[in-house]
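Q: Hi! First time doing this. I have a protein sequence and I read that you can turn it into a structure. Is that right? Here it is:
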Amino acid sequence: MKEITETNYIIKVNLPGGIVAAGDLLEILKAAEKAGITKVSLGNRQQLFLNVSEQELEDLEHEFLIADIEYEKNEDSYPNIISSYVSEDIFSTSNWLREGVYKDILDLFDYQPKLKINLADNNQTFIPFFTGNLNFIASAVSNFWHLHIRFPKTNTFFYWPSLVYTEDIPLLSKLIEEKIFGQKELFYDKEGIDGQELFDSVTSEKRFIDQPITEPLRLPDFQLPYYEGFNKYGNKFWLGIYKRNEEYSVAFLKDICSVCLQTRVGQIYTTPWKSLIIKDINPEDRKLWNFVLAKNRINVRHASNELNWQIEDQCAYGLQLKQKLVRYFDQEDIRTFKLCFAIKTNPKTGLFGSVIIRKQFEVGPEAQEQFDILHTRDFNPNSKDFILYRNNVSLEKLPEELAGLTDYFYDLQIGDNTFTTTSLANQEETSNFEDEKVLIHQCKHCGTIYDPTYGDDLNNIKAGTTFNFLPEAYSCPTCDSPKSDFLEVDKNSLVHL
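A: Yes, that's right. Below is the predicted 3D structure, encoded as structure tokens:
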């Protein structure tokens, strides 16, 4: 979040699952309007932010009290529960995960979580999978979920050794949270956390309905769908709205709520890309929606390379830098398909991206504005395995270095292949066959992989070194387990963290 001054406050309203009833949002907006607030913004975790002055604060808090609206002031003690509910039916179709399942889970939460909780369908790529502390991902078994835990203030993951039943998610989350915060010396801001100890402790106190994990979690290749404008699905339309400055006028949002209520559209959805989505629009109501967009001068066709960015919430610096880089990409006509970018100005901020622009955090009169450019392993934005591409990059050189990285990405995609119409036809014919196995090695204790394509920088192992040629004294760079504790696995079956 941006720096808070004495007369400036950030009010956060959580919208669980990124879902808000049109009538409920209208109440929030009316309270904001009565307090003199004219604009609101959205957050990476599908929440709502209001930037208020000291003069406006008292009136806003009074209105929120009357309307029974929960909020936080200059705090983020209770991160919003995020979900992929927004993507259902328009970007993905699950085998079993439906509206009622999401709502049942959210309704069963009888407490405000302090941990970040993600609920994600395994078929979609619109909502990040692993940006939470408790990451529930739908399995192939109806009403059961994989759980990947990222312990707070660490990059340590633990894969829950059984599938979790839908109705157990809220209680299990509560018990895990109590254990983590009750035993911080074991599970909070520590290296080498023993996830199995947490599992044993939780399951010894409460018996849950579970299922064995019979097949590994496999996620789709990342591709950010275009999420703006009117789009048809079935016999209805959905509308995506994104604002370049990430601010939405209260007057415009009130108009949206009014049209929803008038046309019996019950819900509005927020996204991690700080956009709004409205589903279930009847064809005969498009004229009314177009009128509202025209009245408020809303553009709904931004370029794709402007939509695939994540910046920190309420960060004016990050927004300005993003706009500078997007202008360069647009002028140079740079392709960014299948890439997404994140700008980090705070070392503790976890953002979703396959390319990370990290502002160097040194301060002082001699400090210059410089950046490190990183990308995730295989450019998978759900990975937390970062590779340094360039460091000490000046602001002036940053755009062209990013352009060079995009060229590198597409060179990797193409490789040495030369396509002809015949080879493309053959590719289509074989595209339905199972992926060819690519064997690599994985530590059986912490899940760290050794991929000879990249080697191991921490152990001074050069790229191209096969596992058999590693020294016998080689150990896991994460947990120090010996070489003998690495198992041969198929790379295509792995979920990269």
